[in-house]
Design brief:
The protein is mainly alpha-helical. The chain has 15 helices and 4 strands. It folds into 2 domains: about 160 residues, Vanadium-containing Chloroperoxidase, domain 2; about 250 residues, Vanadium-containing Chloroperoxidase, domain 2 (Orthogonal Bundle). Helices cover about 55% and strands about 5% of the residues.
């Protein structure tokens, strides 16, 4: 893909030649978008955003980056005809000179700053980036014009984002716990309230509606020994009791619970880490760098993967709160073993389907479309969190391990995993088909 680097060096211009070293600018700009996605992850983790919200935060800035940088290639089109409610945005002035990789990053930061709590941190990082690119050498007129265009694209994306229902979702009545033994209820250790019970009201990015890929109902709840539900629960119980070291490492590697609580005495501590969607964003960053993609290629890949993950969470959360199924921990403690504990901390939302299964299968489907079958890679996403690199022979293999990790961790029954994988693949395949549509 390095052969396409000429495209990424293009400065949209009519008139005289640029007054600076384009080679040095392109060297500086290499992989900037993957670096910025990692910086955004750091802010998301520190702000303790939930998995569905984190997926939304990744999607909009990456769309903005692509919409600003697509003008590097005259054959690239806006995503406006692929995304729900999105209209074509601003274009560069044909009479001016622009450095569009700069515009793309500024579009990214302009959007990201408004979606996180710690917006000032994004501003600090952006200021350092702008200082660095000026030190590399860029004419003041091209610099200012490129920054202004990036801001304009970012504002266009933000205006679209304000109409997706995010701000309105909290006006709904919260999740109601009742005496139905099959219905989800808060789980140990901190018995947190349900996370995002109305995420299905968020406007999807590509899929038609939140329930377009309804995975079907879970196994019928039953407490009678020998029933399908009871047997499914015993499977979780036994897997955790007999866990071996390999399965334990798999469970920990794919934990991706953004906020784990620990209690020592009367004090509760919290440990933050990356979300399931964030994990796949980081996998995408690693592939982008391994393949030496241009900034435009990077922007297109990041946008497509982030969009797919965001729609996967909307679809998954729609089923979670429709079936509102009890988690294994609650069932086992009540009907099988009151002292049993899962390997992983049970997240604060219903059982069916498994969010990591849906998100991972959808992301893997898009990545397979972009980079091919049997694409082997080493995943270092969890190294900053104290876990070793894991190697995979394909994106599909990685997604299947992520899915089964939820059984090993003791937080999901197999139907949530198996149906979640099918749901995620269907979402991914649909979005791939929509992007291929003329």
């Amino acid at each position: 893909m390095k052969g396409l680097a000429l495209i990424s060096t293009l400065i949209l211009a009519i008139g005289c030649q640029p007054e600076y070293n384009i080679g040095k600018l392109n060297e500086f700009s290499e992989f900037q978008l993957s670096k910025w996605n990692r910086k955004l992850s750091d802010v998301i983790i520190a702000d303790i955003f939930t998995p569905p919200v984190a997926s939304r935060i990744y999607a909009y800035p990456n769309i903005a980056a692509y919409e600003a940088m697509k003008f590097l290639d005259r054959e690239k089109k806006s995503l406006s005809d692929k995304l729900n409610g999105f209209e074509t945005g601003p274009a560069p002035d044909a009479e001016g000179e622009y450095y569009l990789p700069l515009s793309g990053i500024i579009a990214f930061t302009t959007v990201a700053q408004q979606l996180v709590y710690n917006g000032p941190r994004i501003d600090e990082l952006e200021a350092k980036y702008l200082e660095d690119i000026r030190s590399v050498g860029i004419s003041s007129s091209v610099y200012q014009r490129s920054v202004d265009f990036g801001r304009e694209v970012g504002q266009h994306i933000l205006e679209w984002a304000t109409r997706d229902g995010y701000n309105e979702r909290t006006a709904n009545i919260g999740y109601m716990v009742n005496d139905d033994p099959g219905r989800w209820r808060p789980t140990p250790p901190d018995y947190a309230e349900s996370i995002e019970p109305y995420w299905n009201t968020i406007r999807p990015f590509v899929i038609d509606s939140a329930n377009q890929f309804n995975p079907g109902v879970p196994t019928k709840f039953d407490t009678i020994p020998g029933s399908e539900f009871h047997k499914g629960t015993l499977e979780v119980y036994e897997v955790v009791k007999s866990i071996d070291e390999e399965k334990l490492q798999i469970a920990k590697f794919w934990d991706c619970n953004p906020n784990i609580s620990y209690t020592q005495g009367h004090v509760m501590y919290f440990h933050q880490q990356i979300s399931p969607g964030g994990h796949w964003i980081h996998i995408t960053c690693q592939v982008i760098e391994a393949e030496e993609l241009t900034e435009l290629e990077s922007a297109e890949s990041m946008a497509k993967v982030a969009i797919t993950i965001a729609d996967a969470f909307i679809s998954c959360w729609d089923e979670k709160y429709r079936s509102s199924l009890v988690r294994p921990e609650t069932y086992i403690n009540r009907y099988i073993d009151k002292d049993w504990m899962p390997i992983l901390q049970t997240p604060a939302f219903p059982e069916h389907t498994s969010g990591h299964s849906v998100a991972s299968a959808s992301a893997a489907t898009m990545l397979t479309h972009l980079f091919g079958e049997n694409y082997s890679f080493a995943d270092s996403t969890e190294v900053p969190f104290g876990l070793p690199i894991r190697k995979f022979e394909s994106f599909k293999a990685a997604s299947e391990e992520a899915a089964i990790s939820r059984l090993y961790g003791g937080i999901h029954y197999m139907p949530a995993i198996e149906n979640g994988v099918i749901q995620g693949r269907n979402i991914g395949q649909f979005i791939v088909s929509q992007f291929q549509r003329k």
